[in-house]
Amino acid sequence: MNPTAWTWPSATTRPENGKAAQKAADRERARTLGWKWVESDLVFTTKYGTPIQGTNFLTTFKIIRTRTGLTHGDLRTLRRGVGTLLVHLKVHPRVAKAILRHSRITMTMDVYAEAVDSDVREAVNQMDAHLRRMMSRTLSKPT
């Protein structure tokens, strides 16, 4: 299959419509059960449409962390890991800033983005190769 010619089978299966479809299902379920649905622009809500309380979110995070075999770490560690991964993948800093929802790019680059050893090694190798090319050109020129 040619990946450039591939399209989503239908609008309902597109990822950007997944949350909307889930919200619509939650809204319908709340209506049929007689619950009052609270409409909001939030991405993650309770089954009533209200904001998720911080303690519920942390409890869910700990359950997921345990199921995935992670023994330690909190949301800050996860966030720092995301920032570091974005840097390692060479994602443009402005895109990383948007993903991490920072108001200033310096926050993204200074606090969350850490240099990865392999990236540092690659940068040093690139500088070495560049300097060697420059030196070989300089030494090979007739005086």
Low-confidence stretches: 1-15
Coarse structural class: mainly alpha
| Biggest β-sheet description | none
Rounded mean pLDDT is: 75
Helical residue percent? 55-70%
Gyration radius, in Å: 24 Å
* N-to-C SSE string, H for helix and E for strand: HHHHHH
Span of the ends, CA to CA: 58 Å
Q: What's the total count of β strands?
A: 0
What's the shape?
A: elongated
Commentary on this structure:
The chain is mainly α. The chain contains 6 helices and no strands. The chain has helices at residues 15-32, 54-67, 75-88, 93-100, 105-112, 117-140. Helix 3 packs across helix 5 (105-112) and helix 4 (93-100) crosses helix 5 (105-112). 5% of the residues are buried. Mean pLDDT is 75; it is low at 1-15.
